[in-house]
Specification:
Helix 5 packs parallel to helix 8 and helix 7 packs across helix 8. This protein is mainly α. It folds into 2 domains: about 55 residues, Homeodomain-like (Arc Repressor Mutant, subunit A), CATH 1.10.10; about 120 residues, Tetracycline Repressor, domain 2 (Orthogonal Bundle), CATH 1.10.357.10. The chain starts with 8 loop residues before the first helix and ends with a helix.
């Protein structure tokens, strides 16, 4: 009987599955989706391929699990950050701040790699659905603020977040990117009359 490195068999299996998911994500980010195979994942996790098949029966199953896990972990962190904020503007700021923190940790890289992996249509559809679920609390907060054309405003702000994440990836300090991005977020969400006042003061 294989050695159980946990208090219970269930916990042992959970730990092995987690190790396999981490290994699969590492391979995805560093080598691409085509490299995510049961053999490669097992080797990276230090488990025999036969052990991998107890949890994942194919490369497709591994990629499907990575897709779900990549968003689940980030969504939990984003939900907790936004729940602690008071008011819609603060929730938007919390979404940006936490997204950038997660980005600095590399949490967005599995999803980004999957987006560019040429997945089958069903997987691409699921990936897009998960992305929309992730950004909906942010978009809802923007709608609640009452800015003009909230859908377009949210789209433009999402583009700004994408650019900010790219800056973090390039090595710009997280604090610098976060503070500058939040300053721009506040300007985007400021009432129209206050924005006009700022322009007048600038002149």
């Amino acid at each position: 009987m294989p050695k159980i490195n946990a208090p219970t068999v269930a916990e042992h299996r959970a730990r092995q599955r987690e190790a396999l998911v981490r290994a699969a994500i590492d391979i995805l980010v560093s080598e691409g989706a085509a490299a995510v195979t049961p053999a490669a994942v097992g080797a990276r996790a230090g488990l025999a391929r036969s052990s991998v098949y107890q949890y994942f029966d194919s490369s497709a199953a591994l990629l499907a699990t990575i897709t779900e896990e990549a968003f689940r972990r980030s969504n939990e962190a984003l939900a907790n950050a936004m729940a602690a904020a008071n008011g819609p503007v603060e929730r938007v700021e919390a979404f940006f701040r936490e997204s950038l923190r997660l980005g600095a940790e590399g949490a967005h890289r599995p999803a980004a790699a999957l987006m560019n992996a040429g997945l089958p249509p069903a997987c691409q559809e699921r990936l897009m659905g998960l992305h929309l679920e992730q950004v909906e609390p942010f978009r809802a907060a923007v709608r609640h603020i009452g800015v003009p054309d909230p859908a377009l405003t949210a789209d433009l702000m999402a583009g700004m977040l994408h650019t900010a994440l790219a800056a973090v990836d390039r090595g710009v300090p997280l604090h610098t990117v976060t503070e500058r991005t939040l300053a721009l977020v506040r300007r985007c969400l400021a009432p129209a009359d206050s924005t006009v006042g700022e322009r007048r003061e600038d002149h």
